[in-house]
Design brief:
- By secondary structure, this protein is mainly α.
- It has a single domain, classed as Rhomboid-like fold (Up-down Bundle).
- It has eight helices and no strands.
């Protein structure tokens, strides 16, 4: 008898896959509308605080992208790291990281760059990358992987910010990376403390 191979597709990372789906829809709507819907709903900028859309865009700007290349560059990394991080830290923590990254990057951008617009999930990407570098954390230690990732990813953004004129997105990348590093440290520290309490 021939052995039957039964495979099924599983919805393995609900937050990651939902976020990717929303980014795809937002990017598609932007492309179909010639960028008008991206500008209206998925791009944060210095608009009036009396406008309810200002507050909506504080969060939804991470969904919109300037085009398919921008979308694919961000989403490929999120799809690689997201499921692993979601399994390790739980969907609630990953959702909070996305929301907090979106809010902080947009508020900082709103205050310090009033004449520029920002969209894309790059800040979330950097948060995921730095968070992933803490996977082998033990209290009282700093993983070498974290140091190297911080040097290469954050260092590159600092250099680009100093040498590339008007590259506003660099700050969003750095903020996302700092959020990922902080959350990674805290989550792993608490995890280590729980393990000790069970011994």
């Amino acid at each position: 008898m021939k052995k039957k191979w039964n495979f099924k597709i599983t919805f393995n990372a609900v937050v990651t896959l939902s976020f990717v789906a929303l980014c795809f829809i937002a990017t598609l709507l932007g492309e179909i509308s010639g960028g008008k819907l991206t500008e209206a709903f998925f791009m944060t900028r210095h608009s009036s605080l009396l406008n309810p859309l200002t507050y909506l865009r504080f969060f939804t700007h991470v969904l919109g992208h300037s085009g398919w290349d921008h979308f694919l560059g961000n989403i490929s990394i999120i799809l690689i790291l997201g499921p692993m991080l979601e399994e390790k830290h739980g969907p609630t923590n990953i959702l909070l990281i996305i929301i907090v990254t979106a809010l902080i990057t947009s508020v900082v951008h709103y205050i310090f760059f009033p004449h520029a617009a920002l969209c894309g999930a790059s800040g979330v990407v950097f948060a995921f990358v730095l968070l992933a570098s803490f996977t082998s954390f033990h209290e009282g230690e700093i993983p070498l992987t974290f140091i190297l990732v911080a040097l290469f990813w954050i260092g590159r953004e600092v250099v680009s910010g100093l040498t590339v004129k008007d590259n506003i997105a660099n700050l969003a990348h750095i903020i996302g990376g700092l959020i990922g590093a902080f959350v990674g440290y805290e989550l792993n520290r608490k995890g280590s403390a729980k393990k000790r309490s069970y011994k």
